[in-house]
Amino acid sequence: MTQDYEYIIVGTGPGGAPVARDLAKAGKKVLMVEKGPRHEKALGFPFGPRILEGGGLFCRSMEGVFIARGITVGGSSMVYNGNVFNPPQKVFEQMGLDFLQEVEEVREEIGVRTLPSHFFDHCVGGKRMIRAAEEMGIHFREQDKFIDPSKCKIGCDSCMLGCPRSAKWTTRAWVDQAVEYGAELKVSAPVEKILVEGGKAKGVVIKGGDVFRGDRVIVAAGGVGTPQILLKSGLKNVGESFYMDPMDIVVAQAKEPGEGAWKEMSFTHAIEEFKESDHFIIGNISAMAAIMTGFMRLNVMGKNFSRLPYAKRGMGLFVKLGDEHQGRVYENGKISKPLTDRDNKRMQRGVDLSKEILLKAGAAPSSIAVGRGIGGHPGGTAAMGVVVDQDFMTQVRNLYVCDGSVLPQSPGVPPSLTILSMSRLFGKMLLGKVMAEERKPIA
After folding, report:
1. Which helix (H) or strand (E) holds 67?
2. How far is the C-alpha of 233 from the C-alpha of 238, rounded, in Å?
């Protein structure tokens, strides 16, 4: 089967959806190709993990590090906490592109906000951890969110399992707008490789043999999916310098009933003061998230299995590290993600601080356990300056990449806003509204 399009976009997450919408709005003939289906029912707990690669348990590096990837329409925007961080200046400097204008455009259009204070009136464990950190001279900051409070249920913690109320903004909104503008969407259509003829991208080959032809192909399948497709298509220097912002999750149980983080929302507050010096942030997790960590790491389950009747006392913190880019994604789907000595030292400092906060917040010392190596922001595998140029084009003409894989180093914070804004700039570039040389970062 063959069809002709002006643009074929592989992936519907933060890298693919913005450029797809803007091209379709401009009247271009666009095809969006998504590996996963469009999950609509039974999002949230307990069936939400089915939208993750390997159900959230079986997508791991060879070293055993978990790698969270959303395989559904909306990609990994379906499985993030909705937290909003502006890209650090170093991102612009590394890429040689300044897209701060697009950052402000995205923030305004989506409506970034913190949750109203009444969302936290019932919180006990979270407030105890905040007070404990303050006593240590460390400060939690309330987080900006891609969440509409009018749709959000207080006490729900299903952001990472696909929000069942559509309170969390996802790129599905822009995918749907692209379709309204005339774009086509193919779901459950994993791309096997890029069709290359005469040194130019001419379309995509779907697993099973279907072919879709197009003048330009944009790969936005994420830091793992993109390099796998490019490697199968014969590109070089792809898949290296892999990072993924691994987390260590420190869980515990409060000594007394009613002092845990039951029915609280994870990642509503974060300690950000170490992100420049030690490349990590610390955030709160709920009692339910502490339980789920046990299913991912058996040492946590073994430590606290006997305490399951007291699950409402659960509380915890995560340490998310901006790791060094020492991993690799292979053509056969295998992933290597070792942590360097520097990574381990920085992570350990965050873990030690988290344990101290939990103890001061009233956690039982014997209940503390650490779930190691749980990650979720894969990138670096098709870096700008190595695999793509500042026009986002690869060594193959008319073959582009726009997702987290082009970011040369980890931003050190959740990258959703960074990728969304970068994709919007890319769309402007394709439409001739701006040129890369016009967006040089100010030194």
Report:
1. strand 66-67
2. 11
For residue 118, the number of C-alpha atoms closer than 13 Å in the C-beta half-sphere is 5
Buried b (16+ CB within 10 A) or exposed e, 225-260: bbbbbbbbbebeebbbbbbbbbbbbbbbbbeeeebb
Average pLDDT over every residue of 205-209: 94
Give the span between the Cα atoms of 17 and 25, in whole angstroms: 12
Q: Give the SS3 label for residue 44.
A: coil
To the question of pTM greater than 0.85 for the whole model, the response is yes
Which fold is adopted by the domain 117-143+246-328+340-375?
A: Cholesterol Oxidase; domain 2 (3.30.410)
Q: What is the tens place of the pLDDT at every residue in 344-369?
A: 999 999 999 999 999 999 999 999 99
Beta bridge partners of 136: none
DSSP letters spanning 211-273: EEEEEEEEE-SHHHHHHHHHHHTT-SS-S-SBB---EEEEEEEBSSTT-S-TT--TTSEEE-T
- In the chain, residues under CATH classification 3.50.50.60 are 4-111+162-239+379-439
Under CATH, which number does the domain 4-111+162-239+379-439 receive?
3.50.50.60
Q: Give the pLDDT mean for 260-264.
A: 96
What is the signed CA dihedral for 387, 389, 393, 396, rounded to 10 degrees?
A: -60
Residues 65, 327: Cα–Cα separation, whole Å = 11
Q: Parallel, antiparallel, or unpaired: how do β-strands 141-142 and 269-271 relate?
A: antiparallel
> Helix 125-135 and helix 341-360: axis angle, to 10°?
110
